[in-house]
Amino acid sequence: MKIKDKLSTREEVTWCPGCPNFMILESVKKAISEMSDKGGYSLKDFVMTTDIGCHAKMFDYLNLSGVYCLHGRALPTAEGVCIGNPKMHVLAFVGDGAIYAEGIGHLPHAFRNNMNMTLVVHDNQSYSLTTGQSTPTSQQGFKTKVKPQGEENKPLNPILFALASGATFIARCNAKNINHTADVLMKAIAHKGFSFVEIVQDCLIFNLEMNNKDSRMYEVVDNRNLDVAFTLAKEFDYNSKRGRIPLGVLYQNRNAKTFAQKWPQIGKVVGKGGFYKGQVKGRK
Ligand SMILES: Cc1ncc(C[n+]2csc(CCOP(=O)(O)OP(=O)(O)O)c2C)c(N)n1
Ligand code: SF4
User: Fold this and answer.
1) What per-residue string of b and e applies to 64-83 under the rule 16 or more CB within 10 Å gives b?
2) Fold category of 3-258 in CATH
3) Relative to the alpha carbon of 56, which ligand is closest?
Protein backbone atom coordinates (compact mmCIF):
# COMPACT_ATOMS: atom_id res chain seq x y z
CA MET A 1 0.00 0.00 0.00
CA LYS A 2 1.30 3.50 -0.84
CA ILE A 3 2.19 5.75 2.13
CA LYS A 4 -0.40 8.31 1.00
CA ASP A 5 -3.13 5.65 1.09
CA LYS A 6 -2.04 4.61 4.58
CA LEU A 7 -2.72 8.20 5.69
CA SER A 8 -6.41 7.92 4.73
CA THR A 9 -9.24 6.75 6.97
CA ARG A 10 -12.71 5.39 6.26
CA GLU A 11 -14.54 8.01 8.31
CA GLU A 12 -17.51 9.69 6.66
CA VAL A 13 -16.39 13.12 5.43
CA THR A 14 -18.74 15.86 6.63
CA TRP A 15 -17.03 18.94 5.20
CA CYS A 16 -19.21 20.84 2.71
CA PRO A 17 -18.59 19.63 -0.86
CA GLY A 18 -15.76 21.71 -2.36
CA CYS A 19 -14.49 23.04 1.00
CA PRO A 20 -10.76 23.92 0.70
CA ASN A 21 -10.17 21.84 3.85
CA PHE A 22 -10.13 18.87 1.42
CA MET A 23 -7.16 20.47 -0.34
CA ILE A 24 -5.32 21.19 2.90
CA LEU A 25 -5.77 17.53 3.87
CA GLU A 26 -4.39 16.49 0.48
CA SER A 27 -1.37 18.82 0.88
CA VAL A 28 -0.61 17.40 4.32
CA LYS A 29 -0.81 13.82 3.02
CA LYS A 30 1.44 14.74 0.09
CA ALA A 31 4.03 16.40 2.35
CA ILE A 32 4.13 13.54 4.86
CA SER A 33 4.27 10.83 2.21
CA GLU A 34 7.04 12.59 0.25
CA MET A 35 9.08 13.10 3.43
CA SER A 36 8.53 9.46 4.33
CA ASP A 37 9.45 8.29 0.80
CA LYS A 38 12.72 10.17 0.51
CA GLY A 39 13.19 12.55 3.44
CA GLY A 40 14.31 10.01 6.02
CA TYR A 41 11.04 10.15 7.98
CA SER A 42 8.55 7.36 8.69
CA LEU A 43 4.84 7.67 9.45
CA LYS A 44 5.59 6.80 13.07
CA ASP A 45 7.64 10.00 13.38
CA PHE A 46 4.49 12.14 13.06
CA VAL A 47 1.78 12.87 15.57
CA MET A 48 -1.02 15.45 15.43
CA THR A 49 -3.14 17.56 17.71
CA THR A 50 -6.29 19.24 16.44
CA ASP A 51 -8.48 21.99 17.84
CA ILE A 52 -12.29 22.18 17.57
CA GLY A 53 -13.91 23.45 14.37
CA CYS A 54 -14.39 22.49 10.74
CA HIS A 55 -10.58 22.29 10.31
CA ALA A 56 -10.33 19.92 13.28
CA LYS A 57 -12.03 17.12 11.37
CA MET A 58 -8.51 16.52 10.06
CA PHE A 59 -8.33 14.27 13.11
CA ASP A 60 -10.94 11.93 11.60
CA TYR A 61 -9.60 11.92 8.05
CA LEU A 62 -5.82 11.81 8.58
CA ASN A 63 -4.51 8.48 9.80
CA LEU A 64 -1.95 9.69 12.36
CA SER A 65 -1.89 9.21 16.11
CA GLY A 66 -2.85 12.26 18.08
CA VAL A 67 -5.05 14.15 20.47
CA TYR A 68 -8.37 15.84 19.60
CA CYS A 69 -8.09 18.80 21.97
CA LEU A 70 -10.28 21.38 23.68
CA HIS A 71 -11.00 24.58 21.74
CA GLY A 72 -7.93 26.82 21.87
CA ARG A 73 -5.71 24.12 23.37
CA ALA A 74 -4.27 22.20 20.40
CA LEU A 75 -1.05 24.23 20.68
CA PRO A 76 -0.18 23.69 24.37
CA THR A 77 -1.12 20.01 24.00
CA ALA A 78 1.28 19.77 21.05
CA GLU A 79 3.98 21.38 23.16
CA GLY A 80 3.35 18.77 25.84
CA VAL A 81 3.80 16.02 23.25
CA CYS A 82 7.06 17.67 22.11
CA ILE A 83 8.42 17.67 25.65
CA GLY A 84 7.19 14.12 26.32
CA ASN A 85 8.72 12.68 23.16
CA PRO A 86 11.14 15.05 21.44
CA LYS A 87 11.77 12.50 18.69
CA MET A 88 8.26 12.89 17.28
CA HIS A 89 7.32 15.73 14.92
CA VAL A 90 4.02 17.23 16.05
CA LEU A 91 1.60 18.86 13.62
CA ALA A 92 -1.02 21.04 15.33
CA PHE A 93 -4.08 21.89 13.19
CA VAL A 94 -6.03 24.95 14.34
CA GLY A 95 -8.59 27.46 13.05
CA ASP A 96 -8.19 31.24 13.11
CA GLY A 97 -10.85 31.49 15.83
CA ALA A 98 -9.15 28.81 17.90
CA ILE A 99 -5.60 30.15 17.77
CA TYR A 100 -6.06 33.93 17.44
CA ALA A 101 -8.88 34.18 20.03
CA GLU A 102 -9.39 31.36 22.58
CA GLY A 103 -5.83 30.06 22.29
CA ILE A 104 -3.87 33.25 21.63
CA GLY A 105 -2.29 33.31 25.08
CA HIS A 106 -0.23 30.28 24.09
CA LEU A 107 0.92 31.62 20.74
CA PRO A 108 3.64 34.23 21.50
CA HIS A 109 5.27 31.85 23.99
CA ALA A 110 5.25 29.04 21.44
CA PHE A 111 7.07 31.37 19.02
CA ARG A 112 9.57 32.27 21.75
CA ASN A 113 10.02 28.71 23.05
CA ASN A 114 10.86 27.51 19.53
CA MET A 115 9.97 23.84 20.08
CA ASN A 116 10.47 21.53 17.15
CA MET A 117 6.89 21.34 15.81
CA THR A 118 4.58 22.75 13.12
CA LEU A 119 1.46 24.86 13.64
CA VAL A 120 -0.97 24.78 10.68
CA VAL A 121 -3.65 27.50 10.75
CA HIS A 122 -6.71 27.01 8.51
CA ASP A 123 -7.57 30.73 8.28
CA ASN A 124 -11.04 31.23 6.78
CA GLN A 125 -11.53 34.54 8.67
CA SER A 126 -14.61 33.04 10.34
CA TYR A 127 -15.73 30.77 13.19
CA SER A 128 -17.28 28.44 10.66
CA LEU A 129 -18.32 25.35 12.65
CA THR A 130 -20.50 27.55 14.87
CA THR A 131 -22.10 29.20 11.80
CA GLY A 132 -19.91 32.16 11.02
CA GLN A 133 -19.16 34.55 13.88
CA SER A 134 -16.26 36.96 13.33
CA THR A 135 -12.76 35.97 14.46
CA PRO A 136 -9.71 38.19 15.09
CA THR A 137 -8.76 37.97 11.38
CA SER A 138 -12.26 38.84 10.04
CA GLN A 139 -12.47 42.07 8.07
CA GLN A 140 -14.03 45.24 9.46
CA GLY A 141 -17.73 45.43 8.66
CA PHE A 142 -18.26 41.63 8.52
CA LYS A 143 -21.95 41.25 9.40
CA THR A 144 -22.94 38.20 11.43
CA LYS A 145 -25.92 37.06 13.50
CA VAL A 146 -24.18 38.17 16.69
CA LYS A 147 -22.81 41.40 15.20
CA PRO A 148 -25.58 42.50 12.78
CA GLN A 149 -24.05 45.97 12.53
CA GLY A 150 -20.75 44.50 11.46
CA GLU A 151 -17.35 43.79 13.03
CA GLU A 152 -15.91 47.03 14.35
CA ASN A 153 -12.33 46.00 15.09
CA LYS A 154 -9.52 45.95 12.59
CA PRO A 155 -8.20 42.43 11.97
CA LEU A 156 -5.11 41.07 13.68
CA ASN A 157 -2.24 40.56 11.23
CA PRO A 158 -0.91 37.11 12.29
CA ILE A 159 2.28 37.43 10.24
CA LEU A 160 3.23 40.70 11.98
CA PHE A 161 2.27 39.17 15.33
CA ALA A 162 4.56 36.20 14.66
CA LEU A 163 7.46 38.44 13.63
CA ALA A 164 7.02 40.63 16.71
CA SER A 165 7.03 37.51 18.90
CA GLY A 166 10.32 36.17 17.54
CA ALA A 167 9.00 33.35 15.35
CA THR A 168 11.73 31.46 13.51
CA PHE A 169 9.69 30.10 10.57
CA ILE A 170 6.71 31.94 9.11
CA ALA A 171 4.93 30.89 5.91
CA ARG A 172 1.66 31.60 4.16
CA CYS A 173 -0.08 29.33 1.65
CA ASN A 174 -3.21 29.25 -0.48
CA ALA A 175 -5.30 26.19 0.47
CA LYS A 176 -6.25 25.74 -3.19
CA ASN A 177 -2.62 25.34 -4.32
CA ILE A 178 -1.91 21.78 -3.16
CA ASN A 179 1.61 21.44 -4.63
CA HIS A 180 2.86 24.75 -3.22
CA THR A 181 1.27 24.11 0.18
CA ALA A 182 2.82 20.62 0.34
CA ASP A 183 6.19 22.09 -0.61
CA VAL A 184 5.97 24.73 2.14
CA LEU A 185 4.81 22.14 4.68
CA MET A 186 7.88 20.00 3.91
CA LYS A 187 10.12 23.02 4.55
CA ALA A 188 8.20 23.74 7.76
CA ILE A 189 8.60 20.16 9.01
CA ALA A 190 12.31 20.17 8.14
CA HIS A 191 12.85 23.47 10.04
CA LYS A 192 14.73 23.06 13.33
CA GLY A 193 12.35 24.82 15.70
CA PHE A 194 8.76 26.09 15.65
CA SER A 195 7.25 26.46 12.20
CA PHE A 196 4.11 28.52 11.62
CA VAL A 197 2.09 27.96 8.43
CA GLU A 198 -0.86 30.32 7.83
CA ILE A 199 -3.13 28.84 5.18
CA VAL A 200 -5.55 31.22 3.48
CA GLN A 201 -8.74 29.19 3.17
CA ASP A 202 -12.12 30.12 1.69
CA CYS A 203 -15.25 29.06 3.53
CA LEU A 204 -18.01 28.39 1.00
CA ILE A 205 -20.82 29.15 3.46
CA PHE A 206 -19.71 31.98 5.77
CA ASN A 207 -17.74 35.22 5.16
CA LEU A 208 -18.06 34.92 1.37
CA GLU A 209 -16.84 38.50 0.99
CA MET A 210 -13.27 37.43 1.77
CA ASN A 211 -13.22 34.44 -0.60
CA ASN A 212 -11.42 34.18 -3.96
CA LYS A 213 -8.31 36.21 -3.19
CA ASP A 214 -6.29 33.91 -5.49
CA SER A 215 -5.63 36.48 -8.22
CA ARG A 216 -3.96 38.77 -5.67
CA MET A 217 -1.56 36.08 -4.43
CA TYR A 218 2.04 35.65 -5.56
CA GLU A 219 4.90 33.39 -4.45
CA VAL A 220 8.03 34.86 -2.89
CA VAL A 221 11.53 33.44 -2.87
CA ASP A 222 12.28 31.89 0.56
CA ASN A 223 13.25 34.87 2.73
CA ARG A 224 15.65 35.06 5.67
CA ASN A 225 15.86 38.84 6.03
CA LEU A 226 13.87 40.30 8.92
CA ASP A 227 13.34 43.75 7.33
CA VAL A 228 12.07 42.16 4.13
CA ALA A 229 9.79 39.95 6.26
CA PHE A 230 8.17 42.99 7.91
CA THR A 231 7.60 44.55 4.48
CA LEU A 232 6.01 41.32 3.21
CA ALA A 233 3.87 41.05 6.34
CA LYS A 234 2.45 44.53 5.80
CA GLU A 235 1.43 43.87 2.19
CA PHE A 236 -1.79 42.17 3.29
CA ASP A 237 -3.62 43.44 6.39
CA TYR A 238 -6.46 40.84 6.27
CA ASN A 239 -8.87 43.76 5.66
CA SER A 240 -8.19 45.17 2.23
CA LYS A 241 -9.96 43.96 -0.93
CA ARG A 242 -7.06 45.10 -3.11
CA GLY A 243 -3.29 44.70 -3.14
CA ARG A 244 -0.97 41.75 -3.28
CA ILE A 245 -0.80 38.80 -0.89
CA PRO A 246 2.65 37.19 -0.59
CA LEU A 247 2.84 33.40 -0.21
CA GLY A 248 5.70 31.07 0.66
CA VAL A 249 8.38 31.16 3.33
CA LEU A 250 8.08 34.80 4.43
CA TYR A 251 10.75 34.45 7.10
CA GLN A 252 13.12 31.79 8.38
CA ASN A 253 15.83 32.10 11.02
CA ARG A 254 17.99 28.99 10.99
CA ASN A 255 20.31 30.13 13.76
CA ALA A 256 17.94 30.49 16.70
CA LYS A 257 18.26 28.01 19.55
CA THR A 258 15.47 25.47 19.77
CA PHE A 259 13.69 24.70 23.04
CA ALA A 260 15.71 21.48 23.38
CA GLN A 261 18.97 23.41 22.96
CA LYS A 262 17.92 26.02 25.51
CA TRP A 263 16.82 23.38 28.04
CA PRO A 264 19.16 20.37 27.58
CA GLN A 265 18.36 19.22 31.14
CA ILE A 266 14.82 18.33 29.97
CA GLY A 267 16.20 15.82 27.45
CA LYS A 268 18.20 14.18 30.24
CA VAL A 269 15.10 13.32 32.28
CA VAL A 270 13.33 11.88 29.25
CA GLY A 271 13.87 8.13 29.23
CA LYS A 272 13.59 5.55 26.45
CA GLY A 273 10.30 5.80 24.59
CA GLY A 274 10.07 9.45 25.50
CA PHE A 275 8.43 9.32 28.94
CA TYR A 276 9.78 11.23 31.88
CA LYS A 277 11.55 8.84 34.22
CA GLY A 278 9.41 10.14 37.07
CA GLN A 279 6.23 9.29 35.21
CA VAL A 280 7.39 5.78 34.36
CA LYS A 281 8.29 5.22 38.04
CA GLY A 282 4.92 6.51 39.12
CA ARG A 283 3.13 3.92 36.99
CA LYS A 284 4.77 0.93 38.68
C1 LIG B 1 -13.77 27.45 24.97
C2 LIG B 1 -14.77 27.24 23.88
N3 LIG B 1 -15.32 28.31 23.30
C4 LIG B 1 -16.19 28.17 22.29
C5 LIG B 1 -16.52 26.92 21.83
C6 LIG B 1 -17.50 26.75 20.70
N7 LIG B 1 -16.85 26.52 19.44
C8 LIG B 1 -16.61 25.27 18.98
S9 LIG B 1 -15.97 25.25 17.44
C10 LIG B 1 -16.01 26.92 17.37
C11 LIG B 1 -15.61 27.64 16.11
C12 LIG B 1 -14.27 27.25 15.57
O13 LIG B 1 -13.84 28.23 14.66
P14 LIG B 1 -12.38 28.20 14.09
O15 LIG B 1 -11.42 27.90 15.16
O16 LIG B 1 -12.14 29.46 13.33
O17 LIG B 1 -12.42 26.94 13.13
P18 LIG B 1 -13.31 26.67 11.81
O19 LIG B 1 -14.59 26.04 12.27
O20 LIG B 1 -13.52 27.97 11.09
O21 LIG B 1 -12.46 25.71 11.03
C22 LIG B 1 -16.49 27.49 18.55
C23 LIG B 1 -16.65 28.94 18.82
C24 LIG B 1 -15.92 25.81 22.44
N25 LIG B 1 -16.13 24.56 22.01
N26 LIG B 1 -15.04 25.99 23.47
S1 SF4 C 1 -18.74 25.60 6.81
FE2 SF4 C 1 -17.06 26.44 5.56
S3 SF4 C 1 -15.14 25.71 6.52
FE4 SF4 C 1 -16.86 24.47 7.30
S5 SF4 C 1 -16.89 22.64 5.97
FE6 SF4 C 1 -18.35 24.14 5.13
S7 SF4 C 1 -17.16 25.32 3.61
FE8 SF4 C 1 -15.70 24.23 4.91
Assistant:
1) bebbbbebbbbbbbbbebbb
2) Rossmann fold (3.40.50)
3) 1
